[in-house]
């Protein structure tokens, strides 16, 4: 029988979204991607090509859920519609805390049920820190 701790499965229903330290939304359907350039660093006389990591980039997408009537969501609504300021974004999933300056690269159509709004977004991070 298994006697050690079981692996913890995190679901996006546990995610809180903060912009500049202010909790503005919940998130679901979270996806984060890392891509890295690979640069050739083969030396003269080598028999095989060798490569090293170059610049990395981070992006992601999720569906934001927020209450339209909440005063703090004005920050988020402004960011999604007209504000081109680069914001510090935090995604908090239980013991995971992923953060970095982001640009909202795409914002989908909002679906609303009462005051609860769902908006699919894509973000590009200028840098990323925290536990992934």
Q: How would you describe this structure in keywords?
A:
mainly beta; 132 residues; six-stranded antiparallel beta barrel; 7% helix; elongated
List the SSEs and their pairings.
Blueprint: E1 15-19, E2 22-40, E3 51-67, H1 73-81, E4 87-93, E5 96-107, E6 111-113, E7 116-125, E8 129-130
Antiparallel strand pairs: 1-2, 1-4, 2-3, 3-7, 4-5, 5-7, 5-8, 6-7
What average pLDDT do the residues reach?
A: 82
**Radius of gyration over alpha carbons?**
19 Å
Regions with little confidence, pLDDT below 50 for 5+ residues: none
Strand content: over 45%
Q: What multimeric state do the chains show?
A: single chain
Helix-strand category: mainly beta
Sheet bearing the most strands, described? 6 strands, antiparallel, barrel
The rough form would be described as elongated
Distance between termini?
A: 30 Å
Task: Give me the count of strands.
Answer: 8
Helix and strand element order? EEEHEEEEE
Indicate the percent of residues in helices.
under 10%
Biggest sheet strand line-up: 1-2-3-7-5-4
